[in-house]
Amino acid sequence: MTHSAPPRHLRSSKLLKSSIGSRTPTPATSCLEQAQPGGCITAAWALGGEPLLLGHRFGPFEVRPAQRLLLKNGLPMVIGARAFDVLAVLIEQRDRVVTKLELFDRAWPGLIVEENNLATQVSSLRKLLGATAIATIPGRGYRFVAPVVDRTADDEAPTLAGDMTDASFAHFPGNLAAELPPLYGRDDDLGAMRAFIDAHRLVTIVGPCGIGKTRLAQAAAHSLRQRFRDGVWLVELAPLADGALLPSRVALALGITLSGMREPFDELVAALEPRHMLLVLDNCEYLAAGVAALSQALLDRAPGARLLVTSQSPLGLPAEWLLRLAPLALPPSLDAARALDFGAVRLLSERVTALDRHFTLDAHNIAAMVEICRQLDGLPLAIELAAARIPLLGVQGVQARLAHRFQILTSGLCCRPERHRTLRAALEWSHGLLSHEERIVFRRLGMFSGACTIEAAIHMASDEHLDEWVVLETLGRLVDRSLVVADEGERPCLRLLQSMRAYAIVKLAEAGELFALRRRHAEYFADSSSGGQGDARTSLGLRVAAGPMRS
């Protein structure tokens, strides 16, 4: 008598459930457990005559639920029991979001535990599997998002240290690192980025310095490696100051030898014409014209090529699609467990824990941790620099000193480029892109402690050498360069991030304009409050500076 086999996802669910909660072996798990360790399983079959599901593969990993094994490239990894239980449930239910309550019920059956225990297990899984495998859905739970391939008994089973011959384990052409550091708080951005790259051939991530454009581009490219026959290639352009050297730089990164028989630009484009590839051009702000020309040539002549660009400003091409990267999310409350669901606090907590294993986010430090993230506008680079100071100064000590951020955020991350080793160096990199007029307008916006109307910005920045139309045009370029934030609304307002404003105040002082701008600022808003021409502006809730931020 034969039995109809249940659908594969039901067989998967049954097998996974047998590995968590109750430890009583089912017939399926008994069959598996009789196999010799490290040997090939050749006779494991479901009751319906179909091959039994033995495990799940994703990237270089395989999960074998019945044996409670997590393998990487065929080798067992060290994983805690609770972390394995959480992973098993997430893979089992990978077609949907799994709520935290479900995870508690399955991984801690019958127990009452603190919510941060779950966050700790998810964090440990991300350290093992990479930051992109498990997505946090704020306010709802978690979802396993890595592509999964089921392995059954009729598949050729690798030994523990054997070679993985499945296509998902093949060597991917390209020059990306095999593993990337965790990416916190960017699940939605990563999903949007992948969708953009699928749909469009030229995508540019734009945002201010230190906001994490490179990390996001690397993560997106890494997750798409298997889709490009000729690989995914990253070209770092920050060290390059001469656009004429761009073709040689790209060719070197891709291992292409230019013969010199033609112009390097034409020779490079010809070499890339037949390729099916993703080309990531990183930190293009100083070479925007050259990158735009190369991108357009590849769009025209290399139909299999897609481009992902990171820059502080758009390239300005008709085919370009923009993803303007926002700061990491900040929590609305001081609940320590919930705060870890927000990228800014998660990043700060993880970085501090990596430096001090005794650190724990709790009710005593949560307020200061959140305030640090707020004062740093959720900017990842600034948060990492702050984390490096916490083992010495403590959380409250760092928070208390952020009014002097350029003196304190100087720890120097030795693995980073020079421009990312201090907060001031990062801002100077961006400031160096600006024209003379842009520098004047940027620093004068530092007089506003919050948002201001466009009219107020024009009044503060214009003078006998810069009329209001020049200032208006300049403000638009500063927004494009990600140095000024334009808040949408019935009447748009402009603002500087707090670190940008602190730097603008430094530049005002260096230019000798601080006293004069304070006076102009006071006179303008005195006129507004007395019903003069600025009255309509103050009715919009404009916040103004009582004095410049200390730096």
Topology:
Blueprint: H1 8-18, H2 27-33, E1 53-58, E2 61-64, E3 69-72, E4 75-76, H3 81-92, E5 98-99, H4 100-107, H5 115-129, E6 134-137, E7 141-144, E8 149-152, H6 187-199, E9 202-206, H7 213-223, E10 232-236, H8 246-254, H9 264-272, E11 277-282, H10 288-301, E12 305-311, E13 321-324, H11 336-339, H12 343-355, H13 366-375, H14 380-401, H15 405-408, H16 423-431, H17 436-444, E14 452-453, H18 454-461, H19 468-480, E15 485-487, E16 493-495, H20 498-510, H21 514-529, H22 535-538
Parallel strand pairs: 9-12, 9-13, 10-11, 11-12
Antiparallel strand pairs: 1-2, 1-8, 2-3, 3-4, 5-7, 6-7, 14-16, 15-16
Overview in brief:
By secondary structure, this protein is an alpha/beta fold. It has helices at 8-18, 27-33, 81-92, 100-107, 115-129, 187-199, 213-223, 246-254, 264-272, 288-301, 336-339, 343-355, 366-375, 380-401, 405-408, 423-431, 436-444, 454-461, 468-480, 498-510, 514-529, 535-538, and strands at 53-58, 61-64, 69-72, 75-76, 98-99, 134-137, 141-144, 149-152, 202-206, 232-236, 277-282, 305-311, 321-324, 452-453, 485-487, 493-495.
